[in-house]
Amino acid sequence: MKTRTSTAVVIGCGIGGPVAAMALQQVGIDAVVYEGHERPADFVGSFLNVASNGLDGLRALGADREVLASGFPTPRMVMWSGTGKRLGEVANGLTLEDGTTSITIPRGLLHRALRDEALRRGIHIENGKRLLSAESGPSGVVAHFEDGTSARGDVLVGADGLHSRTRQLLDPAAPRARYSGMLSLGGVAHGTGLAPTPDTFHMMFGKRLFFSHSVRPSGETFWFANLPWESESSRAELSSVASREWKQRLLALVADDKGPAREILEHTRETLAAFPVHDLPTVPVWYRGAMVLLGDAAHATSPSAGQGASLAIEDALVLAKCLRDLGEPARAFAAYEQERRPRVERVVRYSARISSSKTAGPVARWFRDLLMPFALKHFASPEAHAWLYRYHVDLGVSLGGPSLA
Ligand SMILES: Cc1cc2nc3c(=O)[nH]c(=O)nc-3n(C[C@H](O)[C@H](O)[C@H](O)COP(=O)(O)OP(=O)(O)OC[C@H]3O[C@@H](n4cnc5c(N)ncnc54)[C@H](O)[C@@H]3O)c2cc1C
Known about the structure:
Layout: E1 7-11, H1 16-26, E2 30-34, E3 47-50, H2 52-60, H3 65-70, E4 72-73, E5 76-81, E6 86-91, E7 103-106, H4 107-120, E8 124-126, E9 131-137, E10 140-145, E11 150-153, E12 155-158, H5 165-170, E13 178-189, E14 200-205, E15 210-215, E16 221-228, H6 235-239, H7 243-253, H8 261-266, E17 274-279, E18 287-288, E19 291-293, H9 308-326, H10 329-358, H11 362-379, H12 386-389
Helix pairs in contact: 1-4, 1-9, 2-9, 9-10
The structure holds flavin-adenine dinucleotide (FAD).
Flavin-adenine dinucleotide binds next to α1, β3 and α9.
C-alpha cells in the first residue's frame, strides 16, 4: 500500500465530487472527476438549502462566491399548523462572521457553480464515465467504466450519491437506501401577488401534506411539498405522472388547510417532478483498500434537515486533510471515518425525526400542534442547534498538530 497519496479518481460530479477534487488539489493531490451522465446532471425545477456549515466549508476552499451569488439568504423558518396557528420560528443555520447565512439555491445553479469553480482551477471532469467495477491493490486503484475505458489513481473517492456503485463494490452486502414513505415535489410560482417574505421560509404542517414557501422580492415564490406515498416508486415511475395530475393531487391535499398553498400551486406553470425521499442511516463499510465513500454514498440524510449537501462538503474537507496529514490511505480513511461517522449519523437520525412529524396521523398531529410551540421556543436559541451548524474544518491546521499557515 502506498504511503503517500498523489492522485485520486473521484466518482460523481454532483456536490461532494467537485468539492472533494478541489479540497484534494488544495492539499497537493491531483484528482480527476468521472461523472456517469453524458451531460451535467442538473435536476430541473428543484432547489435546495445550503446551510451555514456547508457555506463555511466552501469558504475554507475559497469556493463560496459563485454559490452565494446564485442563491438567496433564508436564515429563518416560521412554522404553521394547517389550521392557521403560528407554531413558532426557528433559525435555519448560524450567521457567519461576515453576516453570511444559509441560502436557498436552484440545484442546477449549485451544480454549475461547483463544476465551473473546479474547472477554473484546472481540475479535469469527464462526463459519460459510469463506474462499473474497480480493483484496489498495493499500488492504488483502477476504475473501470461502462464505456470500456479505465482510470488509475492512488485512491478512489466514491461520491456517487444515494445509489452508489462504489458502496456496492466496497461491500456487496451494503444496505440500500431506506424509503421514508414520502415524496418531495417543488417548484417556483410567478404572479401570486403574495407579499415578499424576506429571509424566511414558511413551513405548514397541513392535514395531509407538508408545504413550505418563500416569496422573493421579485415576486417569485419558491415552494416544496412533502406528501405521504406508501409504496416506493422509482423516479422513472413517478415521472410518468403528468404535471397537471400532480398539481390536482396537491390541490386536493391542501384543500382543508389555511394559508397560501392553494394560490401558490395555481400560479405554478412549470413541469412538476416528484422525488421519493430516502435516507441511509448506517453504512457499515466506508472504505476498503484504497477506496472510500463520501457524501450520500456513505450516509444519506432525508432532506428535512437541509443538510445533505453541507455534510458532503464537510466530508470532502476532512478527507483531504486526513490524506494530507496521515499519508497512507488506510490510516487516513480510518481517521476520516472516526471524525465523520458520529456527526453524520446524528444528523440522519435528527432529520428522520423531522420527516416523521411531517406525515403524522390525526392523533400525532394533535400532539404535535400542541407541543411544537414549546419545543420551538427551546430551539429558538442558536445554542440549541450549535452541534448541527457550528462545524468548522480548518485546512490550515494539521490533524492534532500546529497550524500549517
Ligand atoms: C428532493 C430532495 C431535496 C433535497 N433538499 C436538500 C436540501 O435542501 N439541502 C441539502 O443539503 N440537501 C438536500 N437534499 C440532499 C442532497 O441533494 C444530497 O445530500 C447531496 O446531493 C449529496 O451530494 P453527493 O455529491 O453525495 O451526491 P449527488 O449530489 O447525488 O451526486 C452524485 C453524482 O454521482 C453520479 N453518479 C452516480 N452513480 C455513478 C456512477 N456509477 N459512475 C459515475 N457517476 C455516478 C451522479 O450522476 C451524480 O452526479 C435533497 C435531496 C432530495 C432528493
